[in-house]
Amino acid sequence: MEGALELARAKDTKERMAGVERLHELLEASRKSLSPSETTSLVDVCLDLLKDNNFRVSQGALQALASAAVLSGDHFKLHFNALVPAVVERLGDAKQPVRDAARRLLLTLMEGTKTQMEANLFELNRTTFQYHLVELNLLIQLDTPKAFVLTPENDILSEEINSM
After folding, report:
1. 54 and 79 share one domain
2. With a threshold of 0.90, does the pTM exceed it?
3. Dihedral over Cα of 17, 55, 46, 109: its sign
4. Would the pLDDT of 140 be above 80?
């Protein structure tokens, strides 16, 4: 991947195009996740390439970033503050392929965030469920409805327990 990054940093436009194409191919073919340093290097290079005047270079950088977002996981999230404004800016590009690539990258970023939020919500629900299960077990162990302090809010609950 380092060779592709070096090509992408070249001054010649054709070399940069070859670099982003090679980078995108490598990322698409890869099944292993990117390390934090690889992610940082890739994001830094691609952020520079997003400003390139050649639309194919910008499009390739956006495609490489989308592939990297899938492979990087949490490492990629560290770069959101720099990436999102640059990608949103490319939504206004004169070339449709660049706008499409920017839109796809934003969708990929949102999917990753959504997946993380769902995982966090699942963990919260699981923890809450476990808490309530422990609470229920304690109530069952009390084995007597007199252990409840009657208030207007739980009066119905105590009536149900007494009827058991």
Report:
1. yes
2. no
3. negative
4. no
